[in-house]
Amino acid sequence: MSSTSLNNNDIEILRHAILDQGRVIGNDILKVDSFLNHQLDVSLLNTIGRAFYAHFGQLKIDKILTAEVSGIAIAAIAAQYFKVPVVFAKKTLSKNLDPDTWEGSVYSYTKGQTYQIRVARRYLQADEKVLVLDDFLANGEAIKGMKEIIDLAGAQMVGAGVVIEKSFQPGAEKLRELGVDVHALIRVVSLDNGQINL
């Protein structure tokens, strides 16, 4: 696909989807599972991929890294623009996962526990330039865990793109303190009183 520039209409399409279909639980949970991470709106995912390419497309990247499960669809469709493979960090051990892996730690605030994510070493090499993509950024733990994997591999993390950043939570700031170039397509300012404020 040819080079593309950021199209404000793409961002407006995403904004409308979040405002029209998003559901708020409490003051900190935004559910967008009708189009982003349970049921998938492939046309909207294509818009998201195009928007990520508009921001990061000038970078020479070798891989896109994401975490299972929610990031896979986003990364796969975006990869069509970047023309690079997608690698996803696995959350569970299985018999068909290579025993030789890079591992990162992720603390889950919702579960109150730390778990490991893994990438087979054969799929992440030293000196590769890696772009991380994910659906949400709240506390930054998943992206921090993927950065840990990239660092262990001797690769270079060139940036992190997220569809939705909950800017009232500390994730983006923590990642920027680690030197990560974070780019969110949409920032949610608050979810107070059941209202989505962008």
Automatic annotation (TrEMBL):
A Pfam family reported for this protein in Swiss-Prot or TrEMBL: Pribosyltran
Gene3D superfamilies linked to this entry: 3.40.50.2020
Main location: cytoplasm
Keyword Metal-binding: no
Pathway per the UniProt entry: Purine metabolism; XMP biosynthesis via salvage pathway; XMP from xanthine: step 1/1
The enzyme's E.C. designation: 2.4.2.22
GO terms, molecular function: xanthine phosphoribosyltransferase activity
Enzyme class: transferase
Keyword annotations of the record: Cytoplasm, Glycosyltransferase, Purine salvage, Transferase
Database matches in NCBIfam families: PRK09219.1, XPRTase
Name of the protein: Xanthine phosphoribosyltransferase
Gene: xpt
